[in-house]
């Protein structure tokens, strides 16, 4: 009985969240609020991946904006081309350039290719990057700084390539989403539902990963990397797998963010944006199953509502909130709920025996 | 003094042959041209004063420190392999301080050691029930009653048994144990020795040890290291009779053997 609760209790919680997001929210929220919630869901998808890499894998991924951006820009490129029509060229290229389209844009005319790229591009990028990083045993603060620097480089590159990526303004003014008119409220609701459903899907994926032997191995690698070597595993491979999955999730979040927000720009993917993604995870509880997602939803909501009431001071509120939470609950707000903490054991600070 | 050279049949399949193994740290030679043949079915002991190079030798064979020479096992040169590959080849080791996963239960610790037998795809599934090799190991090391306890609450000796159990689950054919009985009570040492003899029949067991009582009771073969070199090799009786060993290791007095053992007990 107790094992059943341990195993399927989290599933029930995910199901409850699914009902809230997919049934209750569309029924009670205005289209504007629902669209905002859609954005938070996109951040939450990326946050679920961060929970896996950071909470369970111990890798402080400070540059998830890069992967969020890869997915976001891939989707946005497709939407731009869809808006431009067959043989058409995205408007900003006429505005800033000579109206010729770079060849690497061409494949994104295909919806199927775009969907493939949203998963494959971040996976390949994270695999190459992760292989280089983990095989060299780069970890801890060095890893965090390296990933953060990548986010800076990525945003700088985007800003510098105005003719190819829209530069500082990013890509915006999407009219269609795979044939559905984005100005139609019904279609907007559908796009929201897709994002919410993807969030639930990602949660189910990490639920299975956490209860799998891989999940145990990942925690073991986090806590005692050298010991894992003597179990016959290369810790680099274990971490690489978690890093790649986290990157794909961030990319999926970004891909849904573009049509929901109506824009993807360097400020959505840069170092600051990456830290916002991390912030939600830290707030909710990085090692918990639902902590990262709920934390990201809360931070997203806080961003919107605080910035509406206090346009100038809201970042101070958010900053203060983090200081308080990190001081009182270093493992996140979720850890304050004993029950949740009992379901998913957190790293213990002290040894019970010597 | 030297052991008679064993015939291939006697050696069995899982023997580890170390030839001319040398480890240098910044010009200091920690292990100096060591030749050693570790044969299946015997409990080997490596003894020697502090700094003799015992642990360094084991580190070299398990890929923790770079070394020159050869360490051949089933036609593979271990010195050219990385640690996790060496483990997968069937060489397991423990450390002086027990390094079990404190938050995982005894059962989970044993189960996680079975990862070497599983495909990456199988890793994605949750654990269901107890695999037979895990149950066997649990039984063999005598921790069946504690299977659901977190490993962090185990007594020191139990942690060492758990580590040995993990090596059993890994199916390590060669077990390199670094001071497994240090800090154990007399009864625990007895049990550990009996355990090693039990599991040693179809394995190659190498124990680094200081405790001479323990060595006397359970060693089939003893190798004495001194200053990175093999001083001598033989049965316990031969080692004790060796003037070189008495000279260098035991400080000239044969009775010293007994006293050192008594100090540790």
UniProtKB/TrEMBL annotation, chain A:
Keywords: Cell membrane, Membrane, Transmembrane, Transmembrane helix. Pfam families: BPD_transp_2 (PF02653). The keyword RNA-binding does not apply. GO terms for molecular function: branched-chain amino acid transmembrane transporter activity. Its main location: membrane. The keyword Methyltransferase does not apply. It is found in: Cell membrane. The chain crosses the membrane at residues 111-134, 141-160, 166-183, 190-210, 240-264, 276-302, 314-340. GO terms for cellular component: plasma membrane. It is a multi-pass membrane protein. NCBIfam families: urea_trans_UrtC (TIGR03408). This is Urea ABC transporter permease subunit UrtC.
TrEMBL record, chain B:
Gene3D superfamilies: P-loop containing nucleotide triphosphate hydrolases. One of its GO terms (cellular component) is plasma membrane. InterPro entries: AAA+_ATPase, ABC_AA/LPS_Transport, ABC_transporter-like_ATP-bd, ABC_transptr_urea_ATP-bd_UrtD, BCA_ABC_TP_C, P-loop_NTPase. GO terms for molecular function: ATP binding; ATP hydrolysis activity. It comes from the Bacteria. Signal peptide: none annotated. Residues 16-252 form the ABC transporter domain. The keyword Nucleotide-binding applies. Pfam families: ABC_tran, BCA_ABC_TP_C. CDD domains: ABC_Mj1267_LivG_branched. Coiled coil: none annotated. SUPFAM superfamilies: P-loop containing nucleoside triphosphate hydrolases (SSF52540). The keyword Disulfide bond does not apply. Keywords: ATP-binding, Nucleotide-binding, Transport. This is Urea ABC transporter ATP-binding protein UrtD. The gene is urtD.
């Amino acid at each position: 009985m107790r094992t059943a609760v341990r195993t399927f209790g989290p599933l029930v919680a995910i199901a409850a969240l699914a009902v809230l997001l997919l049934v209750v929210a569309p029924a009670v929220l205005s289209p504007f609020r629902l669209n905002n919630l859609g954005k938070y869901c996109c951040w939450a998808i990326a946050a679920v991946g961060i929970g896996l890499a950071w909470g369970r894998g111990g890798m402080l991924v400070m540059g998830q904006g890069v992967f969020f951006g890869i997915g976001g820009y891939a989707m946005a490129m497709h939407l731009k081309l869809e808006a431009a029509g067959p043989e058409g060229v995205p408007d900003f290229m006429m505005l800033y350039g000579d109206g010729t389209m770079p060849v690497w844009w061409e494949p994104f005319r295909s919806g199927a290719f775009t969907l493939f790229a949203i998963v494959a591009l971040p996976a390949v990028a994270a695999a190459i990057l992760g292989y280089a990083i983990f095989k060299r045993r780069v970890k801890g603060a060095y890893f965090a700084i390296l990933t953060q620097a990548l986010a800076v480089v990525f945003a700088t590159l985007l800003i510098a390539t105005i003719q190819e990526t829209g530069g500082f303004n990013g890509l915006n003014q999407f009219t269609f989403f795979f044939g559905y008119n984005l100005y139609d409220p019904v279609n907007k609701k559908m796009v929201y539902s897709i994002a919410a459903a993807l969030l639930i899907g990602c949660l189910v994926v990490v639920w299975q990963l956490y209860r799998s032997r891989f999940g145990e191995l990942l925690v073991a690698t986090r806590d005692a990397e050298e010991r894992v070597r003597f179990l016959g595993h290369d810790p680099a491979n274990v971490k690489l797998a978690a890093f790649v999955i986290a990157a794909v999730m961030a990319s999926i979040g970004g891909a849904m963010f573009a049509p929901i927000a109506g824009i993807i720009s360097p400020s959505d993917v840069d170092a600051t944006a990456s830290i916002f993604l991390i912030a939600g995870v830290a707030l909710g509880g990085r090692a918990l199953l639902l902590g990262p997602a709920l934390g990201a939803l809360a931070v997203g909501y806080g961003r919107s509502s605080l910035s509406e009431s206090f346009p100038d001071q809201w970042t101070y509120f958010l900053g203060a909130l983090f200081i308080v939470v990190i001081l009182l609950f270093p493992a996140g707000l979720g850890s304050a709920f004993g029950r949740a903490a009992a379901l998913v054991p957190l790293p213990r600070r002290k040894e019970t025996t010597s | 003094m030297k052991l008679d050279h064993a015939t291939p049949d006697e050696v069995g399949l899982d023997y580890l042959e170390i030839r001319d193994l040398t480890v240098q740290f910044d010009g200091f030679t920690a292990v100096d041209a060591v030749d050693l043949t570790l044969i299946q079915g015997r409990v080997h002991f490596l003894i020697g004063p502090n700094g003799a190079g015992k642990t360094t030798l084991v580190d070299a064979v398990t890929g923790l420190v770079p070394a020159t020479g050869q360490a051949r096992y089933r036609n593979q040169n271990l010195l050219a392999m990385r640690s996790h590959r060496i483990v997968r080849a069937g060489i397991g080791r423990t450390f002086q301080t027990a390094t079990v996963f404190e938050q995982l239960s005894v059962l989970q610790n044993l189960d996680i050691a079975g990862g070497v037998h599983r495909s990456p795809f199988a890793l994605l599934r949750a654990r269901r029930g107890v695999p037979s090799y895990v149950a066997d190991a649990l039984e063999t090391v005598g921790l069946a009653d504690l299977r659901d306890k977190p490993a962090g609450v185990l007594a020191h000796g139990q942690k060492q048994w758990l580590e040995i159990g993990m090596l059993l689950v890994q199916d390590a054919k060669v077990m390199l144990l670094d001071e497994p009985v240090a800090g154990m009570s007399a009864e625990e040492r007895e049990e550990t020795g009996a355990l090693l003899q039990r599991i040693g029949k179809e394995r190659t067991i190498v124990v680094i040890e200081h405790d001479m009582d323990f060595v006397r009771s359970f060693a089939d073969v003893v190798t004495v290291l001194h200053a990175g070199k093999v001083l001598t090799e033989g049965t316990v009786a031969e080692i004790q009779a060796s003037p070189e060993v008495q000279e260098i290791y035991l400080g000239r007095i044969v009775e010293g053997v007994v006293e050192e053992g008594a100090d540790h007990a």
